[in-house]
Design brief:
The structure holds two protein chains of two kinds.
Chain A lengths: L1 E6 L4 H8 L3 E4 L12 H13 L3 E6 L5 H4 L2 H6 L6 E4 L2 H10 L4 E6 L6 H10 L4 E6 L8 H5 L5 E15 L12 E5 L8 E6 L2 E11 L4 H6 L4 E4 L12 H11 L7 H7 L4 E2 L28 E9 L3 E6 L6 E2 L3 E5 L5 E5 L3 E2 L5 E2 L1 E2 L4 E5 L9 E4 L3
Chain B lengths: L1 E5 L3 H9 L4 E5 L14 H12 L4 E6 L11 H11 L3 E4 L2 H10 L4 E3 L8 H9 L4 E3 L6 H11 L2 E8 L11 H5 L17 E4 L4 E4 L6 E3 L4 H7 L3 E4 L6 H16 L3 H11 L4 E2 L1 E2 L17 E2 L3 E11 L3 E6 L7 E6 L6 E5 L2 E2 L5 E2 L7 E5 L9 E5 L1
Parallel strand pairs in B: 1-2, 1-11, 2-3, 3-4, 4-5, 5-6, 6-7, 7-11, 10-13
Antiparallel strand pairs in B: 7-10, 8-9, 12-14, 15-16, 15-22, 16-21, 17-18, 17-22, 19-20
The chains are: A alpha/beta, B alpha/beta.
């Protein structure tokens, strides 16, 4: 398994190489949602990496509007000898395939794409130039093998870093503050100390805890992950690009076990978490509060709903089924909101003017004889037994 | 150009259809992004499609969640049912879902805004995958939408009215990590609407900094027509019947007569609904601060008091009461087309002729009236 990380300054080139890093991600402000560096700085770093044979992956991970797309080619061409670009926007993939056919492409599939049908389909249709996919941190470890078995391409996941929870192309901080970095928290909800960073591409809100899965390196290897990424983005609470932190984490990723995971966690100023690595049950907790007695998912033909009741006088029923009419002498079952079930045979159907009807249809409002125990919102079905 | 309205349940579908929508979008109990809406089970879905098709209105079904593998269980059965009901399109964003739809049935596919398609290269990708229409990301301008349509020769749909995510659609997972609810599988907790304390080196302020103003594009209807936009989508399957009816009517009227006078009239109508401050979002290009951040809601100067359930020509209309009110009162019937009708009501009388001082919500009252009111017209009063 190989390690890669983001690079943020020229000084880091030799430092990262000394730890054993073989490839780095370069984030330019014009192309990357995380990008803080100017094109000139990025070109300087790129040239230095090239000189030292340190592989550079250019991050082009913003979603591009039609207008932005027009200015891209010259920018990419300015990275002479560039070999690899990672993209999120499928338009960028098509663009590179069309205009920069010599470039290797990494496809970021880390937003959504939690099923093998989706990832498999991307691998099928994006075959050309694709050398690596980046999977979502929401996929539990026990499912990763199914994804890595889909092809022989390289598969990368984030091992350490702040997970982005929200990405807006709008500049959300500078309207309120001269600062481009802040912490956001609410009193009433579990939304505390989210680091926020604003840059040329908009605003990112990160999780407050550091995604940290160094405990699972051997399992990740067994599951077929080929690359582990250390996102060294800093937040107001923690500078992950700080030298000591960088050294400890990268050395661990490179196989040096002289420091324990506990030692590493202790130097991090904020808590760590493993996210959904063990299980993802985010579809289970949200239970819809619906009255099961008012479901019309039943065997009997649905007719409509009781919308008014006048004691000892009438039930007003609004017919709502296009395919079912209601006739005199039909037997009906009425389910009340509190779960009671009442049966009746219809003696008379009247309209609001008191006129007798033989049959009523969808959208008709009809009046049936009063039946004790029926309340508004009760559901009416034909009793066809 | 199609006006596409949300249908959170059957009654809302009826209202959207009768207030003039050309198409409605709705969801089954699974696979969509609005778990909290009533939504439709299979019986209701079939009923909805039959009702809409009977009135020449198209029905699109959302399957635009980001699926996990287990979500595919029973999905093909659901798709076969949708095909049997003859739904007009399925809205999806996940490539795995799109491929599964293509493998299973021949119903057209619309790419959900969740896929954040914003450029013609991306549109080309999706067209090659068999997508018939692109529902563009909300960050695309109308001019860009038109360019994408002309470049790729594909139908384009844009959001024209309703709530906006400040984030790129599909790129917000706050609920996943704070509430354990997958925002991209229908569990969005709307964390972006909370007020946050923003603490930075030089300041500490309380702001709803992630809460966007509401989109309103009625004044751009003529531009939309000129640019050849195929469909204008109204957001809001969770919103109430008044919002749905009034907004649908405003856009249908504006399309019928997109003169400056009419567009201004309809803009004023849209002010009569509860809303955050309005913005044109990205429709005219990148928004400024002034049309970005929500700073409180504008309360509607009207409330819905009822819905017309039956008509007895030259005698009375029968209204289901939705809000308790007292008489005398001037009621305003929101007609399906054209000007509204005002009725002065002096007595609250039920169908037996019994007179009451006030009526409970859900009761039926007689409103004497001779004129052209129709079933399902909403009735409002000014506050």
């Amino acid at each position: 398994m190989r390690t890669l990380c983001t690079i943020h300054s020229l000084d880091e080139v030799t430092e990262l190489m000394s730890i054993g890093v073989k490839e780095v991600i370069l984030e330019v402000q014009n192309l990357s949602r995380y990008g803080l560096m100017t094109l000139d700085t990025a070109l300087e770093i790129f040239k230095c990496c090239h000189r030292f044979h340190l592989k550079v992956i250019l991050a082009w991970d913003v979603l591009m509007t039609e207008e932005q797309m027009a200015a891209i080619s010259p920018l990419i061409k300015s990275f002479k000898y560039l070999k690899t670009v990672r993209v999120r926007d499928l338009g960028c993939y098509i663009f590179l395939r069309k205009h920069h056919r010599d470039l290797e492409i990494h496809l970021l599939l880390d937003h959504g794409n939690h099923n093998i049908k989706a990832v498999g389909s991307y691998l099928d249709v994006c075959r050309e130039n694709l050398t690596r996919i980046i999977l979502s941190s929401e996929i539990p470890i026990n499912l990763l093998k199914k994804f890595t078995d889909l092809s022989s391409l390289e598969v990368e996941v984030m091992a350490v870093g702040f997970l982005p929870l929200f990405y807006s192309p709008r500049k959300l901080l500078s309207h309120f503050s001269e600062d481009k970095r802040a912490l956001a928290f609410t009193e009433d909800h579990p939304h505390r100390h989210f680091p926020i960073v604003e840059n040329e591409q908009g605003t990112i809100l990160f999780n407050s805890k550091i995604h940290f899965i160094l405990n699972f390196i051997s399992e990740l290897r067994e599951e077929g992950i080929s690359h582990l990424r250390f996102d060294r983005h800093s937040s107001p609470t923690c500078d992950l690009a700080e030298s000591k932190i960088t050294h400890l984490i990268l050395k661990f990723l490179e196989g040096d076990r002289s420091q324990s995971i506990k030692d590493i966690e202790e130097i991090l100023p904020v808590k760590t978490h493993i996210g959904f690595l063990k299980a993802n049950k985010t579809d289970k907790i949200f239970v819809k509060i619906k009255n099961k007695h008012l479901s019309i998912n039943r065997e009997k033909p649905y007719v409509g709903e009781v919308i008014d009741v006048k004691k000892n006088k009438y039930l007003a029923v609004l017919l709502r089924n296009v395919q079912t009419s209601l006739s005199q002498d039909d037997s009906i079952i009425v389910y009340t909101p509190d779960g009671k079930k009442k049966k009746m045979t219809i003696d008379t159907i009247k309209n609001a003017a008191g006129k007798l009807l033989l049959e009523a249809f969808c959208d008709d409002l009809i009046f049936l004889p009063y039946l004790h125990g029926i309340s508004i919102k009760s559901m009416v079905f034909i009793d066809d037994e | 150009m199609e006006i596409l309205s949300p249908a959170g349940n059957f009654e809302k579908l009826q209202l959207a259809v009768n207030y003039g929508a050309d198409a409605v979008y709705l969801s089954g109990h699974s696979y969509g992004l609005r778990h909290a809406a009533d939504n439709f089970n299979l019986i209701e879905l079939e009923n909805a499609v039959t009702y809409a098709h009977g009135r020449n209105v198209r029905v699109y079904v959302t399957c635009n969640a980001f699926f996990h593998d287990q979500d595919f269980e029973n999905f093909t059965d659901f798709l076969h049912e949708l095909q049997r009901f003859k739904v007009d399109a399925i809205i999806a964003s996940d490539l795995g879902v799109i491929e599964e739809i293509k493998r299973t049935i021949s119903t057209p596919i619309h790419l959900s805004t969740q896929a954040s398609c914003l450029n013609s290269y991306s549109a080309q990708f999706w067209k090659e995958r068999g997508v018939r229409r692109i529902i563009l990301g909300r960050e695309a301008s109308l001019a860009e939408a038109s360019l994408i349509k002309r470049t790729i020769n594909i139908e384009v749909e844009v959001f024209i009215h309703g709530a906006l995510c400040m984030a790129h659609s599909g790129h917000c997972v706050i609920s996943n990590y704070t509430e354990g609810r997958d925002s991209n599988r229908g569990g969005c907790a709307h964390s972006c609407r909370f007020e946050y304390t923003l603490s930075s080196e030089h300041s500490k302020v309380k702001k709803t900094f992630m809460s966007s103003q509401d989109l309103m594009g009625v004044e751009l209807l003529k531009t939309c027509l000129d640019l050849g936009i195929d469909s204008l989508k109204i957001e809001g399957r969770m919103k109430g019947t008044y919002y749905l009816s009034a907004v649908t009517k405003a856009y249908v009227e504006a399309r019928r007569d997109p003169t400056r006078k009419m567009l201004e009239e309809q803009r004023q109508e849209l002010e009569k609904i509860d809303h955050r401050q309005y913005t044109s979002g990205y429709l005219e290009g990148k928004p400024t601060k002034m049309n970005t951040f929500e700073e409180g809601r504008e309360r509607a100067p009207f409330t819905v008091v009822g819905i017309v359930r039956d008509i007895f020509i030259d005698q009375f209309i029968l209204m289901e009461v939705k809000t308790i009110f007292t008489v005398p009162v001037t009621l305003e019937v929101l007609t399906f087309r054209g000007g509204n009708i005002f009725i002065s009501l002096k007595v609250l009388e039920d169908i037996d002729g019994d007179i009451a001082g006030k009526m409970l919500i859900g009761r039926l009252i007689k409103v004497p009236y001779r004129g052209h009111v129709e079933k399902l017209n909403l009735v409002r009063m000014s506050l």
